[in-house]
Amino acid sequence: MTSSETGRASDWDPTAPETFDSSHEVYTDLRRRCPVPWSDAFGGFWAATRYADVVRVARDSGTFSTAVQNVVPHVPRAQRRPPLHFDPPEHGVYRAPMDRVLRRAVVRRLEPAFAAAARELLEPLLARGGGDYAREFALPYAAQCFALFLGLPVEQVLEIRRIGVEYSFAIQEMDRARVMKASDELYAIALAIVEERRARPRDPDEDLVSSLLRASGDPARPIPYELVVATVRQTVVAGIGAPHAVLGSAAVHLSRDPDLQDRLRADPALLPAAIEELLRLYAPYRVFARTATRDVELGGRTVRAGEAITMIFPSANRDEAVFADADRLDLERRPNRHLAFGRGAHRCPGAAMARLELAAALGELLAGTSRVEPGGEVEMFNWLEFGPRSAPLHLVPRS
């Protein structure tokens, strides 16, 4: 909806060019001035910027449905893709086989392989004294970790990520033909993955695709085969994109805070607390949306039935009403109930794996260097992913 259709003027411009820090300044202003702003961009949508409002939207599936429009911009689709496109209780049918294989007790077996992948990818950057951390490390590392988890060739996962980036830019540009082309390519890859696993099944308590295929044969609540494919299609895109984005942000933050680097090198036991703060400060998504099922008041605004509202996690995670000194990384922050993985029924199923990926990558970065420094201008992704597309760093190897 445009302002002429709604009678509303835009309160902000989410399409404005961004630097590494600029969006946080915008969100701070919105939380104080207009915590639930309206924008004409991407067909028109509301945005929840405060912690309490984001939690309310995420938890109340009856009022804020994910089944209609669940991202901004609205993505044309041939079919719904579980679990994101389904509300509870139907949503739980698809989450159960995913949660089974994404528990920390299951994915922690991958820790040594993640660390080995991080060391291997860091070697050429250390030898050169630096490079583009986002492009040369975070991207291939996120792909390699997901390839290890899903049991796929890393080249195939990198191709998925390439198409996924094309898909996200086509969405932002609202280019329907490019969106559909990229989506069809991703579906074709997902179908090939599922067909291969159906022919050569693996342990369904450790393998995501095999777990979904087992659920497709559940006599009580069978998952249709085409929705097994759609679930894999949904998972592979998010499972690579989010770690890629947040890892780049984390490395840039470390490069600008030498005291934090020194503390973490001196006491690696502090790394888990640092990771939670980095997740809070740089949550990688802000486009996940819900559609109001009825007229509802939120943050002093009236959201009409059928209107979309995004949950701006990077803003909610710096809400001064919840987090003292919210822009500062505080290793002693207790509690730290950040929303980097969402909240409610659609909380990210890959949270444990993401934490393992970050711990391995940042642990190896700190162990292999005596100093990490900024190396040039950071280039941000577009609206759909919140993090650096390019992050030049200088790396001083540890002697």
Automatic annotation (TrEMBL):
Q: Which UniProt keywords apply?
A: Heme, Iron, Metal-binding, Monooxygenase, Oxidoreductase
> To which protein family does this belong?
Belongs to the cytochrome P450 family.
The protein's name is: Cytochrome P450
Q: Which InterPro entries match?
A: Cyt_P450, Cyt_P450_B, Cyt_P450_CS, Cyt_P450_sf
**Species for this entry:** Nonomuraea composti
The upper taxonomy is:
Bacteria, Bacillati, Actinomycetota, Actinomycetes, Streptosporangiales
The family database entries (PANTHER family) matched by this protein are listed as: P450, PUTATIVE (EUROFUNG)-RELATED
